[in-house]
Protein backbone atom coordinates (compact mmCIF):
# COMPACT_ATOMS: atom_id res chain seq x y z
CA UNK A 1 0.00 0.00 0.00
CA UNK A 2 1.41 3.40 -0.95
CA UNK A 3 2.33 5.44 2.09
CA UNK A 4 0.29 8.62 2.52
CA UNK A 5 1.49 11.68 4.42
CA UNK A 6 0.18 12.06 7.94
CA UNK A 7 0.08 15.07 10.22
CA UNK A 8 3.34 15.39 12.11
CA UNK A 9 3.83 15.08 14.92
CA UNK A 10 1.09 12.52 15.57
CA UNK A 11 -0.66 12.60 18.91
CA UNK A 12 -2.25 9.69 20.77
CA UNK A 13 -5.65 9.04 19.18
CA UNK A 14 -7.42 8.13 22.43
CA UNK A 15 -5.91 9.14 25.77
CA UNK A 16 -8.23 6.63 27.54
CA UNK A 17 -7.23 3.69 25.32
CA UNK A 18 -4.48 2.38 27.57
CA UNK A 19 -4.42 -0.29 30.27
CA UNK A 20 -1.45 0.87 32.32
CA UNK A 21 1.82 -1.00 31.80
CA UNK A 22 2.57 -4.72 32.00
CA UNK A 23 6.16 -5.54 32.97
CA UNK A 24 8.59 -8.39 32.43
CA UNK A 25 11.97 -7.55 33.91
CA UNK A 26 13.21 -4.31 32.36
CA UNK A 27 10.63 -4.54 29.56
CA UNK A 28 7.19 -2.99 29.70
CA UNK A 29 4.26 -2.95 27.26
CA UNK A 30 1.75 -0.12 27.07
CA UNK A 31 -0.01 2.27 24.71
CA UNK A 32 1.97 5.30 23.51
CA UNK A 33 1.02 8.45 25.41
CA UNK A 34 3.09 11.14 23.69
CA UNK A 35 3.84 12.32 20.18
CA UNK A 36 7.53 11.56 20.80
CA UNK A 37 6.73 7.91 21.57
CA UNK A 38 4.70 7.57 18.36
CA UNK A 39 7.59 9.15 16.47
CA UNK A 40 9.93 6.57 18.00
CA UNK A 41 7.62 3.77 16.85
CA UNK A 42 7.59 5.22 13.32
CA UNK A 43 11.40 5.44 13.36
CA UNK A 44 11.62 1.79 14.46
CA UNK A 45 9.23 0.80 11.67
CA UNK A 46 11.38 2.65 9.14
CA UNK A 47 14.55 0.88 10.29
CA UNK A 48 12.92 -2.55 10.04
CA UNK A 49 10.75 -2.17 6.94
CA UNK A 50 13.01 0.02 4.80
CA UNK A 51 16.58 -0.48 5.98
CA UNK A 52 16.30 -4.16 6.86
CA UNK A 53 13.53 -5.64 4.70
CA UNK A 54 14.05 -3.61 1.55
CA UNK A 55 10.83 -1.60 1.32
CA UNK A 56 10.94 1.20 -1.25
CA UNK A 57 10.84 4.66 0.29
CA UNK A 58 9.56 7.76 -1.45
CA UNK A 59 11.44 11.05 -1.06
CA UNK A 60 9.44 12.19 1.98
CA UNK A 61 9.86 8.88 3.77
CA UNK A 62 13.62 8.85 3.12
CA UNK A 63 13.99 12.44 4.28
CA UNK A 64 12.11 11.87 7.54
CA UNK A 65 13.41 8.36 8.27
CA UNK A 66 9.88 7.52 9.42
CA UNK A 67 7.31 4.96 8.27
CA UNK A 68 4.21 7.12 8.57
CA UNK A 69 0.79 7.21 6.95
CA UNK A 70 -2.62 8.79 7.55
CA UNK A 71 -3.79 5.90 9.75
CA UNK A 72 -1.19 6.67 12.42
CA UNK A 73 -3.13 9.75 13.46
CA UNK A 74 -6.20 7.71 14.48
CA UNK A 75 -4.50 4.52 15.71
CA UNK A 76 -3.41 3.44 19.15
CA UNK A 77 0.28 2.50 19.14
CA UNK A 78 1.27 -0.43 21.32
CA UNK A 79 4.88 -0.17 22.52
CA UNK A 80 7.40 -2.36 24.23
CA UNK A 81 9.84 -0.16 26.13
CA UNK A 82 13.17 -1.31 27.59
CA UNK A 83 13.45 0.62 30.85
CA UNK A 84 17.16 -0.22 30.99
CA UNK A 85 17.52 2.25 28.10
CA UNK A 86 14.83 4.66 29.22
CA UNK A 87 11.12 4.84 30.11
CA UNK A 88 10.10 6.93 27.11
CA UNK A 89 10.71 7.14 23.37
CA UNK A 90 14.42 6.33 23.73
CA UNK A 91 13.49 2.86 25.03
CA UNK A 92 11.02 1.76 22.31
CA UNK A 93 12.08 -1.67 20.98
CA UNK A 94 8.79 -3.09 19.66
CA UNK A 95 5.50 -1.81 18.34
CA UNK A 96 2.10 -2.78 16.95
CA UNK A 97 -0.56 -0.50 15.45
CA UNK A 98 -4.14 -1.02 16.66
CA UNK A 99 -7.14 0.51 14.88
CA UNK A 100 -10.67 0.09 16.21
CA UNK A 101 -13.84 0.59 14.16
CA UNK A 102 -14.48 4.11 15.47
CA UNK A 103 -10.91 5.16 14.67
CA UNK A 104 -11.08 3.68 11.16
CA UNK A 105 -14.22 5.72 10.49
CA UNK A 106 -12.24 8.90 11.18
CA UNK A 107 -9.64 7.81 8.61
CA UNK A 108 -12.22 6.89 5.98
CA UNK A 109 -11.86 3.13 6.48
CA UNK A 110 -9.36 0.48 7.49
CA UNK A 111 -5.85 0.23 6.05
CA UNK A 112 -6.53 -3.32 4.82
CA UNK A 113 -9.35 -2.14 2.55
CA UNK A 114 -6.72 -1.25 -0.05
CA UNK A 115 -5.97 -4.97 -0.40
CA UNK A 116 -9.04 -6.89 0.79
CA UNK A 117 -12.81 -6.72 0.59
CA UNK A 118 -13.80 -6.25 4.21
CA UNK A 119 -17.52 -7.03 3.96
CA UNK A 120 -17.36 -10.08 6.28
CA UNK A 121 -15.39 -8.06 8.85
CA UNK A 122 -17.70 -5.06 8.74
CA UNK A 123 -20.72 -7.36 9.12
CA UNK A 124 -19.35 -8.86 12.34
CA UNK A 125 -21.81 -8.02 15.16
CA UNK A 126 -19.20 -7.12 17.80
CA UNK A 127 -16.23 -4.78 18.12
CA UNK A 128 -13.45 -5.33 15.60
CA UNK A 129 -9.81 -4.22 15.57
CA UNK A 130 -7.22 -4.09 12.82
CA UNK A 131 -3.68 -5.18 13.71
CA UNK A 132 -0.72 -3.96 11.68
CA UNK A 133 2.77 -2.48 11.43
CA UNK A 134 4.23 -5.01 13.84
CA UNK A 135 8.00 -4.97 14.27
CA UNK A 136 10.68 -5.65 16.87
CA UNK A 137 14.22 -4.28 17.03
CA UNK A 138 16.70 -6.88 15.74
CA UNK A 139 18.54 -7.05 19.07
CA UNK A 140 15.35 -8.10 20.88
CA UNK A 141 13.88 -10.79 18.65
CA UNK A 142 15.05 -13.62 20.88
CA UNK A 143 13.75 -11.93 24.00
CA UNK A 144 10.28 -11.62 25.50
CA UNK A 145 9.26 -8.67 23.31
CA UNK A 146 6.84 -10.52 21.02
CA UNK A 147 5.25 -12.29 23.96
CA UNK A 148 4.87 -8.92 25.70
CA UNK A 149 3.24 -7.43 22.61
CA UNK A 150 0.70 -10.26 22.67
CA UNK A 151 0.06 -9.66 26.37
CA UNK A 152 -0.54 -6.03 25.51
CA UNK A 153 -2.94 -6.95 22.71
CA UNK A 154 -4.82 -9.25 25.08
CA UNK A 155 -5.07 -6.45 27.65
CA UNK A 156 -6.33 -4.05 24.97
CA UNK A 157 -8.88 -6.60 23.73
CA UNK A 158 -10.02 -7.15 27.31
CA UNK A 159 -10.40 -3.42 27.94
CA UNK A 160 -12.29 -2.63 24.74
CA UNK A 161 -14.28 -5.87 24.43
CA UNK A 162 -12.90 -6.65 20.98
CA UNK A 163 -14.60 -9.67 19.41
CA UNK A 164 -12.59 -9.95 16.20
CA UNK A 165 -9.04 -9.03 15.20
CA UNK A 166 -7.87 -8.86 11.60
CA UNK A 167 -5.16 -7.42 9.39
CA UNK A 168 -2.59 -8.19 6.74
CA UNK A 169 0.47 -10.32 7.48
CA UNK A 170 3.47 -10.48 5.18
CA UNK A 171 5.78 -13.04 3.63
CA UNK A 172 9.08 -11.61 2.42
CA UNK A 173 9.48 -11.29 -1.34
CA UNK A 174 7.16 -10.60 -4.25
CA UNK A 175 7.31 -13.86 -6.25
CA UNK A 176 4.31 -16.04 -5.30
CA UNK A 177 5.81 -19.10 -6.96
CA UNK A 178 8.87 -18.85 -4.73
CA UNK A 179 6.42 -19.09 -1.80
CA UNK A 180 4.20 -21.74 -3.40
CA UNK A 181 4.45 -24.23 -0.54
CA UNK A 182 3.67 -21.66 2.17
CA UNK A 183 0.75 -20.08 0.31
CA UNK A 184 -0.71 -23.43 -0.67
CA UNK A 185 -0.40 -24.69 2.92
CA UNK A 186 -2.23 -21.64 4.29
CA UNK A 187 -5.04 -21.99 1.75
CA UNK A 188 -5.42 -25.74 2.29
CA UNK A 189 -5.22 -25.82 6.09
CA UNK A 190 -6.20 -22.41 7.47
CA UNK A 191 -8.79 -20.86 5.13
CA UNK A 192 -11.34 -18.81 7.06
CA UNK A 193 -14.96 -19.97 7.23
CA UNK A 194 -17.17 -18.19 4.65
CA UNK A 195 -18.69 -15.78 7.16
CA UNK A 196 -15.22 -14.42 8.05
CA UNK A 197 -13.45 -14.89 4.73
CA UNK A 198 -12.01 -11.67 3.32
CA UNK A 199 -11.13 -11.83 -0.37
CA UNK A 200 -8.33 -9.93 -2.08
CA UNK A 201 -9.66 -7.09 -4.23
CA UNK A 202 -10.03 -8.22 -7.82
CA UNK A 203 -7.24 -6.14 -9.43
CA UNK A 204 -4.69 -7.42 -6.89
CA UNK A 205 -5.90 -10.99 -6.34
CA UNK A 206 -3.14 -13.63 -6.42
CA UNK A 207 -4.15 -17.30 -6.23
CA UNK A 208 -2.80 -18.91 -3.05
CA UNK A 209 -3.27 -22.51 -4.20
CA UNK A 210 -0.06 -22.59 -6.23
CA UNK A 211 0.32 -26.37 -6.32
CA UNK A 212 -1.39 -29.60 -5.32
CA UNK A 213 -1.65 -29.55 -1.49
CA UNK A 214 -0.86 -33.26 -1.45
CA UNK A 215 2.51 -32.51 -3.02
CA UNK A 216 3.78 -30.32 -0.16
CA UNK A 217 5.09 -31.25 3.26
CA UNK A 218 2.73 -29.42 5.69
CA UNK A 219 5.17 -29.40 8.59
CA UNK A 220 7.95 -28.01 6.43
CA UNK A 221 5.64 -25.36 4.94
CA UNK A 222 4.45 -24.34 8.40
CA UNK A 223 8.03 -24.10 9.67
CA UNK A 224 8.94 -21.82 6.75
CA UNK A 225 6.24 -19.27 7.57
CA UNK A 226 7.26 -15.99 9.23
CA UNK A 227 7.02 -16.12 13.05
CA UNK A 228 4.20 -13.58 13.13
CA UNK A 229 1.97 -15.66 10.85
CA UNK A 230 2.74 -18.79 12.87
CA UNK A 231 1.77 -16.83 15.96
CA UNK A 232 -1.62 -15.94 14.50
CA UNK A 233 -2.22 -19.57 13.56
CA UNK A 234 -1.38 -20.72 17.09
CA UNK A 235 -4.03 -18.29 18.34
CA UNK A 236 -6.65 -19.97 16.15
CA UNK A 237 -6.31 -17.54 13.26
CA UNK A 238 -7.48 -18.03 9.69
CA UNK A 239 -6.43 -16.58 6.34
CA UNK A 240 -8.55 -14.94 3.68
CA UNK A 241 -8.95 -15.88 0.05
CA UNK A 242 -6.16 -14.63 -2.19
CA UNK A 243 -2.76 -13.06 -1.56
CA UNK A 244 -1.68 -9.55 -2.57
CA UNK A 245 1.72 -8.41 -3.83
CA UNK A 246 2.87 -5.25 -2.04
CA UNK A 247 5.72 -3.97 -4.19
CA UNK A 248 6.41 -0.98 -1.95
CA UNK A 249 7.10 -3.16 1.09
CA UNK A 250 8.69 -6.01 -0.90
CA UNK A 251 6.17 -8.52 0.47
CA UNK A 252 3.30 -10.81 -0.37
CA UNK A 253 0.41 -10.17 2.02
CA UNK A 254 -2.24 -12.53 3.30
CA UNK A 255 -5.36 -11.55 5.23
CA UNK A 256 -5.53 -12.76 8.82
CA UNK A 257 -8.61 -12.98 11.03
CA UNK A 258 -8.73 -14.11 14.67
CA UNK A 259 -11.84 -14.39 16.82
CA UNK A 260 -10.80 -13.35 20.29
CA UNK A 261 -12.78 -16.18 21.88
CA UNK A 262 -10.27 -18.49 20.19
CA UNK A 263 -7.21 -16.65 21.50
CA UNK A 264 -5.09 -18.79 23.83
CA UNK A 265 -6.58 -18.56 27.33
CA UNK A 266 -3.27 -17.85 29.02
CA UNK A 267 -3.11 -14.27 27.74
CA UNK A 268 -6.53 -13.39 29.11
CA UNK A 269 -6.06 -15.34 32.33
CA UNK A 270 -2.78 -13.54 32.93
CA UNK A 271 -4.36 -10.12 32.33
CA UNK A 272 -7.35 -10.90 34.55
CA UNK A 273 -4.87 -11.94 37.27
CA UNK A 274 -2.85 -8.73 36.94
CA UNK A 275 -5.99 -6.61 37.29
CA UNK A 276 -6.51 -8.29 40.68
CA UNK A 277 -2.82 -8.51 41.66
CA UNK A 278 -0.59 -5.80 40.13
CA UNK A 279 2.50 -7.78 41.19
CA UNK A 280 1.55 -10.80 39.02
Rounded mean pLDDT score: 90
What is the rounded Rg?
Answer: 18 Å
At the fourth level of CATH, the homologous superfamily is: Gcn5-related N-acetyltransferase (GNAT)
Q: Which structural class do you get from the secondary structure elements?
A: alpha+beta
| Top-tier CATH class | Alpha Beta
Q: Figure out the total of helices.
A: 9
What do you see in this structure?
This protein has helices at 35-52, 59-64, 101-107, 119-122, 145-160, 180-190, 218-224, 227-234, 265-276, and strands at 22-24, 27-31, 76-82, 92-100, 116-117, 127-136, 162-172, 199-200, 238-246, 251-259. It is built from nine helices and ten strands. The protein is an alpha+beta fold and 280 residues long. The chain has an eight-stranded mixed beta sheet, with helices on both faces. It is globular, with a radius of gyration of 18 Å.
